[in-house]
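Appendix B, example 12.
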Amino acid sequence: MASSEGFLTEEQREMLKLATQNAEILSSSPKSPSSLLSDHPLKVPASGKAPNTGIAVRHVRRTHSGKLGRAKKDGAGGKGTWGKLLDTDGESHIDRNDPNYDSGEEPYQLVGATISDPLDDYKKAVASIIEEYFSTGDVDVAASDLRELGSSEYHPYFIKRLVSMAMDRHDKEKEMASVLLSALYADVISPAQIRDGFVILLESADDLAVDILDAVDILALFLARAVVDDILPPAFLTRAEKTLPKSSNGFQVIQTAEKSYLSAPHHAELVERRWGGSTHITVEEVKKKITDLLREYVESGDTFEACRCIRQLGVSFFHHEVVKRALVLAMEIRTAEPLILKLLKEAAEEGLISSSQMVKGFSRLEESLNDLALDIPSAKALFQLLVPIAISEGWLDASFVKSSG
């Protein structure tokens, strides 16, 4: 019993000690109260009587209804509590009329972007260039536009597009297409790309025949014209023929070109004039005029008159032919070499023959040296002598040596 001074009896001291130990067990364990009681039985005093004090009740949260309200996981609280500080279970809503509205708080949206195909873009661009050329007939503008377009790796598709568009039009456009191909050859489009373009055309002959009834004959004429204009070597037909199925229209195109056009007497003139009625002058006629004016120049030595005649031809895109034929004439008539070199130098300095046309003329002659050697055995040796002279005098770009090497 307690004394009058308020001291605890021994029994009371033992009960207080046990109550403190039991409270520490309950508060230090993360388990629920029910499992805790089963794992850690409460200690009772030696007398066997259970303590009548309310131990651990202060650790349990109760609502006003008397129900047990355990805390939620992560400390969110139970029913009737405020919940977590950053509880975002509910959907948020942004009010654009709110004075504190910030557009940066709007949820991000992924916007799909269309990825364009460079080849498709190129085809659309060249179609526009070709349409304008057919309308104006300006070869120089068409060449400049194609050069500015870039993407030179796709030039074989320009060949296909130009020829296929012309095939479905009148003879005028067909002739214009052939003239443009000759003008672009080696200057804007390399010889290899010209060949690749015609390969694509031959492989597409079956599809072209669906829309164009006489596609085989027209394409055969384009092929023959390319051989006559020296932009395709005759050996191309033999090589291409081996790669095509005999049942294909492409194979028939080559057969028609060889038998109907290139094997006929005076075939060059016939091929040149097939569409030439719609133009003022054919390529073959231009070649003849160039040969005539060069021979007249060799006889007269009048450089001014020769330059006037070249200018009067009005075919600046075809000046590479002047260069090529002038060099061949210098090889045929050795005494004419000084005059020929003087004419070419004068034409280059005046700007009459552009640097690209000069390089193109030398390139075309270099490609035909093997055939030319049959008539002029020393053609290769003479050509090797002419090149350094032209470069040293400044009327042939030094890049020719790198490109040809």
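Confidence is low (pLDDT under 50) at residues 1-5, 53-60. Residues 10-62 form one domain.
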